[in-house]
Amino acid sequence: MDVSIELGRQHALESLESFDDDGRMKRTGNMWTASAHIITAVIGSGVLSLAWAIAQLGWVAGPVVMILFAFVIYYTSSLLTDCYRTGDPISGKRNYTYTDAVTSYLGGVKVKLCGFIQYANLFGVAIGYTIASSISMTAIRRSNCFHEKGHKSPCHVSSTPYMIIFGVVEIIFSQIPDFDQIWWLSIVAAVMSFTYSSIGLGLGIVQVIANGGISGSLTGISVGSAVTETQKVWRSLQAFGDIAFAYSYSMILIEIQDTIKSPPPSEAKVMKKATLLSVAVTTFFYILCGCMGYAAFGDEAPGNLLTGFGFYNPFWLLDIANAAIVIHLVGAYQVYCQPLFAFIEKWASQAWPGNEFISKEIRIKLPVSSKSYNINLFRLLWRTGFVIITTIISMLLPFFNDIVGLLGALGFWPLTVYFPIEMYIVQKKVVKWSMKWVCLQILSMACLVISIAAAVGSIAGVVSDLKVYRPFKSSY
Known about the structure:
The protein is mainly alpha-helical. It has a single domain (33-466), classed as Amino acid/polyamine transporter I, CATH 1.20.1740.10. The chain is built from 15 helices and 4 strands. The chain has a two-stranded antiparallel sheet with strand order 1-2. A hairpin with a 6-residue loop joins strand 1 (85-86) and strand 2. It starts with a helix and ends in a 10-residue tail after the last helix. The chain crosses the membrane at residues 31-50, 57-76, 116-140, 182-206, 274-295, 315-336, 380-400, 406-426, 438-463.
């Protein structure tokens, strides 16, 4: 009898140790997994467009803007990490999502506004990543075509089949139940991002050596020879926005922080270290890749170093780089979409409590191992439907990257700057019109102006694309 009681106590203790203070399964994340999530989200294939961005701004403004935005993103992200718990930083109530944090600190109509902007951006990013991955896959086909037929061959390739392939892969990976279980995918994706960034950097260095010097100018692409004054303005605004939004990951910061294991130390301290490491690594790569690409090609820097065919050889190295981009985007898609998946599933379970279709988990034993996998029919159908919809929209609007840029422009200020600052003011009880309050408001207003300017540049890009728009006819 004593043995059975002891065993029962031991089992109860083990069960208790399997859960966190909020009753959820024990979180296992740390600084390294959080950093992997951030780097996967931040260093997208957009890093390869930074050479074009610097070409519009020049040797002075380009690197300066990168460093300024690195500082802004790190600072506002640090403010946001403190909002993960309401009250005490170790024992206070957890905010599982960005919207939960806004609800706790600000409330009212701001919650609905924040939720709409956040999830609209996540939806747009999913479409943008589908398009970006298809561009890299078509680049592999074109690279081999150029190798066989010469650089002057048109080598047109339709992107539609590749979007479908990417969609099928995402349907499979989207069945991973939650954010905490995709840490391995983020690590693989982060490694891939360093792979293709390093290849782009290496090719840029080789090109500079071949040119016998550094190309480019202090003020960027010159008016008259290549662009008109109006085009110079639009391109500069777009470049400014590209650099600003290349750093943006605040919309999923709280969700990443929710994967970190319980204190001590507090999740905020761990997340601040992960943010500092990630932003520092990101900035280092951004400046290296952007500046070296501009040094190699000057005013003629392509929109993407690896798919714009500034480089043609060695073709096999370009293939490796573009394959790495695709693998990275597979992971990045999941990092951005998991918060959206979780939101819809939580809403459905609250709207229809007790509905077995929504809540029942069907355990299936895996044939190749002793482990089993839980399938939820609602999760299976809804996530599959989401991927199918984003894939179809990508095929309909292959220039959707410009619209995603517009969504990013509209989302950058509220999600990355405004809400973190306002929540920090409430949390720390910053006195209105004090020096700190004034400085925070100046920072917020400056970023609002940048968002509006970038939105104008993105709209100009959309208008330009619509002039040659042909549904389902995208080719590169």
